[in-house]
Each structure stands twice: as C-alpha cells, then as structure tokens.
Design a protein that fits this description.
single chain; mainly alpha
C-alpha cells in the first residue's frame, strides 16, 4: 500500500516562513502550531533566504517555478508507479499461493540470494519462515526395535491388545508403559478395536469395491491377501 505524502501550498509555506522570520516563537512551537516538522520548516526557511537575492528577478522566479513543477510532476509519476507495483505484487502473491503447492513454493526459495532476504522471500511466497529451518529427526534405534517387536507380537497374536502386548514386553525385560505401546500401535496402524460405522448415510463413496465377489478360491495361490499396514525396514518402517 503506497504512502501519500503531505503537500503544502506556496501560500502556506510563505506564512510559515514569515512566522519564523519574526523570531517570536521557536521552531518547535511553530512546527507544532502548523502541524509540520522542524526539519521541514527549517528547509523552507533556508530556501526562502537563498532565494532573496533574486526575489525581484522574474527570470529566476520563473525558473524556480518551472523546477518545482517538474519535481511535482516527477513525484506524482513515482507515486503512481509505486501504486501500480503494489497492486501487481498483491495479485502475484495471491496467485502464487493459490496455484502452487507448498512444496513447489518451498523449492522457489533461494537461500543464497544476496539482495532478497529469506524473510522477504517467505512473505512473497506465503510461507512460514520458521518451517524452513525445521530438520526432521529420525527415529531412535530403541524405537525401531520396539516397533518391530510390537509388530511381531501382533502378527503372532492378532487378538492381543495394548495391555497384553505391554505385559509381554515387560516380561521380556523392556521398560515400556501402556501409553507408549498404544501410541506406537496407533502410528503403525495396528488396532483391535472396532472402526467407524460405515453403514451410515453418505459413507458408501468412501468404501472400496470388493474384488472377490462371485470368486471362489478353488486351487492353491488362487487368491492372496496381504496386510501392508506396517512394513519393517532396517532404518525404520513404512
């Protein structure tokens, strides 16, 4: 959003300079009275004193007026350009956030850019700057071994809940409580409690079709079933 600067008329400047030249009040008092700044009225005074030698010369007055008119025109053009660029920037930011995913916007961040700071880039791309500094922490070796053991117990005894798995782990010498076991089982997708009631209205769209309808398993390896809820890896799991 562009900032509009105050514009003062020649009559107003002349009135203020006359008040300064009377030397009846200080610059601060005059600036407070006329709603301006001391630096501004000081500059007006210096301009008036510098123009006194040519005050009776029409040529110098016309030249000064033409120069001020050129400055005013240039300032108006600059403000118009600033407003135009501000509008274009707002439009670009809105469309970048709407059309690009977060990963695509993160890929556009240039950490080595010398003129555009990381904070400015994240603001233009609609990103949270603090999220760019986050480094994911890999699971510990103890957590991996514990989850592998929970998966083995659940595979061998699918009717075991978090309580029985916790007791079994404690008998094996592992110090773990039931809350931790429940959290690990939830992350691994191992649940022995009833799921949501899919017979409710408007839930049919989320049910995958049953591919074995009217199919009878009549010979070995005719039908295979696989549970891929938890897949063990050497450095973690899927």
């Amino acid at each position: 959003m562009s900032v509009i600067r105050k514009s003062y008329t020649v009559e107003f400047k002349t009135k203020v300079v006359r008040e300064i030249l009377r030397e009846e009040k200080t610059l601060s008092q005059i600036a407070s009275e006329y709603g301006t700044h001391t630096n501004v009225i000081s500059r007006w005074r210096d301009q008036a004193l510098a123009a006194l030698p040519g005050a009776f010369s029409d040529q110098l007055a016309n030249a000064q007026a033409a120069k001020e008119a050129a400055w005013e025109k240039e300032r108006e053009e600059l403000y118009a350009e600033i407003g135009k660029l501000s509008t274009q920037l707002a439009w670009l930011k809105k469309n970048v956030v709407t059309c690009l995913s977060r990963d695509e916007r993160v890929a556009l961040v240039d950490r080595t850019h010398g003129e555009l700071s990381l904070s400015a880039q994240t603001q233009l791309l609609g990103l949270n700057r603090t999220s760019l500094y986050y480094q994911p922490v890999p699971p510990s070796e103890e957590e991996i071994l514990l989850k592998h053991r929970i998966d083995k117990l659940y595979t061998d005894h699918p009717y075991y809940g978090s309580r029985r798995i916790t007791e079994q782990l404690k008998r094996e010498g592992l110090e773990v409580n039931r809350k931790a076991v429940m959290r690990h089982m939830h992350e691994m997708g191992l649940a022995v409690y009833p799921g949501p009631n899919l017979s409710k209205r408007a839930h049919r769209a989320t049910i995958c079709p049953y591919l074995l309808t009217n199919v009878t398993a009549s010979y070995p390896n005719h039908v295979w079933g696989l549970d891929i809820t938890y897949i063990r890896l050497r450095q973690g799991w899927l």
